[in-house]
User: Fold this.
Amino acid sequence: MSRKFDYLGDVEVFIAVAEHGSFTAGAVALSTTPSVLSRAISRLEARLGRQLLQRTTRRVGLTEAGRLYLEQVRSAFSLLVEAERDVQGQEGELAGRLRLSVPTTYGHYRLPPLLARFVRQYPLVQLEVNITNRNVDLVAEGFDLAIRLGHLPDSGLVARKLEDAALLLVASPDYLRRMGAPQTLEDLQRHMCLPFILPRTGRLAPWVFRDGKRDLDWLPSSSIETSDDVLGVVSLAEQGIGICQSYEFIVRDRMQRGELVEVLPQLRGRTRPFTLIYAPHRRQSAAARAMIDLLTSDTPSPEENANDEASV
Assistant:
């Protein structure tokens, strides 16, 4: 049997474009491209057999049919939201489905204990956790929430900082016995460094240091470069191949077990932020709100206007 309402994604696009007044602004709000939105509107107009938008070079306006349709679909979406909340609120138990996308670093080392708490508290919520370093399109791919790494440029998405994660250099004891421990930043030039290629840009990620009160960005070079999964540089360092920069929360246990040793500790002090993002135009489900509350329970207040550009 064919799905009767498989076009609701196109309706949501129509609402966003109508409310923001242009395909460009609507695309920013939905974290996608104007061409994707234009195709969605064309499909919807073809389905209805009526023109909904009057397109100009800079803005779009509603036709009479568009104004009537917007009023009706807004009411329909409100009823869906109310129905979802009514069902989720029965007997005080949260239910529903929640899709979350996270980078490998957070997905393997930060998220599991939080998810353990969540599933114990809300056993009826069905979770899909997408662990990837690819930037998902929240709206087009149907994700409720995503976690991103790095300083994020403006996009219209809601962003809430989760933490500033500390960075440090590490190497295996075997490597340091063979090659000696670098004492200065200049010494790194003579060592096997293990850089990572940023998936978004295809460029090497700089290593970041703090020398006293001065912040330094240093570009490592090596005969070995790792891409796609940043955790790979830690695995290589464990095998005595070279020195890598990683997050303290990733290498802490390995350092306590003696598998890795910190290098140049006098240059640590820099951090990178992890941020939770979601689309502002969507009414969040009760399950999504519960997850947001859990992830941000000890974090700063929300910041508007960030997006999901960086992903490591």
User: Anything to note?
Assistant: The domain at 164-272 is CATH 3.40.190.290 (D-Maltodextrin-Binding Protein; domain 2). The first helix runs from residue 8 to 20. Residues 7 and 47 are 9 Å apart (CA to CA).
